[in-house]
């Protein structure tokens, strides 16, 4: 029996609740200070026709020194995704219900609407990130992201939709750690709903990854390190994977990458329906658990585990044709 231990730790303005040895946070958010900046107060229009990139970045920079909250009222805010918005440490970015940050059409291969790079204690809550896959002006590349994390730590992403991106709805890399996706939706993205290429202590809970299609792997969630990347301690729980052209969840380490690794992956209590490949596909992965999931109308096997993986697959998983 695993003994649960409960700790309450205040870390640079965020109240983080740690449960058990995995130390996953509970998606609680507490601003670092009482400073609040409404983006309209620094010139953002949110009218769907004005480029609001500079105004939004000004608001985000305005809370970066002492920490605080940036509020995005209802509206459509156009952002030059070639530049994107950078969120710094100790920032809560709160998007109102009905607030949309929309990427302006471009022709570049690689970009992100929002970036959290080398920052800690960040929360992004509510609203929608809307990509430009249907207006994209180029034909190459697959790295146009809604939200990218690189070298980030103690980040909560909550109640936000990321859809119609040229690449991924969400991307985690650069040895990021303690990242929580809570009640998020990735819908209609071209490459993945969520890519995890480097990181540790990543929680996905109560979320939906749907309608991913366009360029492989086309998975709801793809755990796939780059050449020397490592991914460990990932929990995917109580989430939905529906109508993705690839797998619902794929964990894959290329045999070419001798220095990469995937370990301690837990996939529990999720629903997989009408995915184009396997519901769950596990390759070259250590200590994976696939427990208590339901699978319906997978185009291939419900669960596929290769001979190089070490995995526990419980009979509690249920399958329907």
Low-confidence stretches: 1-24
Instruction: Give a count of the beta strands, DSSP E runs of length 2 or more.
Output: 33
CATH class membership:
Mainly Beta
Strand order of the largest sheet: 3-5-8-11-14-17-20-23-26-29-32
What level of helicity do the residues show? under 10%
Overall structural domain count? 1
**Shape-level CATH architecture:** 3 Solenoid
Pfam family, one: Pect-lyase_RHGA_epim
Domain Right handed beta helix: 146-314
Protein name: Polygalacturonase
Domain Rhamnogalacturonase A/B/Epimerase-like pectate lyase: 37-111
Describe this structure as you would to a colleague.
The protein has one helix at 53-62, and strands at 6-11, 14-19, 36-38, 47-51, 68-72, 75-79, 85-86, 91-95, 99-103, 110-117, 120-125, 128-130, 143-150, 153-158, 161-163, 168-173, 176-182, 185-187, 192-196, 199-205, 208-210, 219-223, 230-237, 240-242, 249-252, 261-268, 271-273, 280-283, 286-291, 294-296, 303-305, 311-313, 318-320. It starts with 5 loop residues before the first strand and ends with a strand. The radius of gyration is 19 Å and the shape is globular. It has one domain: Single-stranded right-handed beta-helix, Pectin lyase-like (Pectate Lyase C-like, 3 Solenoid). The strands form 4 sheets. An 11-stranded parallel β-sheet has the order 3-5-8-11-14-17-20-23-26-29-32, covered by helices on one side. Strands 4-6-9-12-15-18-21-24-27-30-33 form an 11-stranded parallel β-sheet, with no helix packed on it. Strands 7-10-13-16-19-22-25-28-31 form a 9-stranded parallel β-sheet. The chain is mostly beta strands and 321 residues long.
């Amino acid at each position: 029996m695993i003994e649960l231990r409960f700790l309450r730790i205040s870390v640079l303005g965020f109240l983080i609740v740690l449960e058990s040895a995995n130390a996953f946070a509970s998606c609680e958010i507490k601003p670092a200070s009482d400073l609040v900046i409404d983006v309209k107060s620094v010139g953002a229009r949110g009218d769907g026709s004005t480029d609001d990139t500079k105004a939004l970045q000004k608001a985000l920079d305005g809370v970066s020194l002492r920490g605080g909250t940036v509020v995005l009222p209802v509206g459509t805010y156009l952002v030059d995704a070639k530049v994107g918005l950078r969120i710094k440490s100790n920032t809560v970015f709160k998007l109102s219900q009905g607030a949309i940050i929309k990427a302006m059409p471009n022709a570049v291969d690689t970009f992100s609407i929002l970036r959290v790079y080398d920052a800690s204690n960040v929360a992004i809550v509510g609203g929608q990130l809307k990509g430009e896959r249907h207006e994209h002006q180029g034909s190459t590349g697959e790295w146009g992201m809604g939200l990218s994390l690189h070298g980030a730590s103690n980040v909560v992403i909550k109640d936000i939709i990321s859809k119609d991106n040229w690449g991924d709805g969400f991307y985690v890399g650069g040895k990021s750690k303690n990242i929580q996706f809570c009640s998020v939706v990735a819908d209609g993205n071209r490459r993945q709903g969520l890519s995890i290429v480097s990181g540790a202590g990543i929680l996905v809970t109560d979320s939906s990854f749907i309608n991913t299609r366009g360029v492989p792997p086309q998975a709801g969630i793809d755990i796939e390190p780059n050449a020397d990347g490592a991914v460990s301690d990932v929990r995917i729980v109580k989430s939905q994977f529906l109508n993705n052209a690839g797998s619902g969840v794929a964990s894959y380490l290329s045999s070419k990458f001798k220095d990469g690794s995937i370990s301690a992956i837990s996939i529990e209590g999720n629903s997989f329906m009408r995915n184009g490949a396997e519901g769950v596909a596990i390759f070259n992965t250590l200590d994976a658990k696939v427990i208590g999931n339901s699978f319906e109308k997978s185009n291939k096997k419900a669960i596929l585990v290769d001979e190089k993986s070490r995995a526990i697959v419980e009979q509690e998983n249920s399958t329907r044709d």
